[in-house]
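Narrative of activities, Objective 1.

The group set out to show that a structural description can be obtained from nothing but a protein's sequence at a throughput compatible with the screening campaign. Below is one input-output pair from the validation batch, recorded exactly as produced.
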Amino acid sequence: MNNRGVALVISYMVVVVLSALGVTFITSTISEKNSTINYTNSTRAFWSAEGGLQQGIYAFKNNDWSG
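Output recorded for this entry:
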């Protein structure tokens, strides 16, 4: 094999390795984004429920059932 053949094989290997790293990075980014969305939604749900509970306690204590 001459030098041109070796350089071609090495460049193909570099392209494959960089492509694999790119796919891994994209997959990791998508996974992190989905985790962030899930956390945000669960936090919003918790605080919405907490606010509704506090409104109910206030209404019960003050006989204010108008909402």
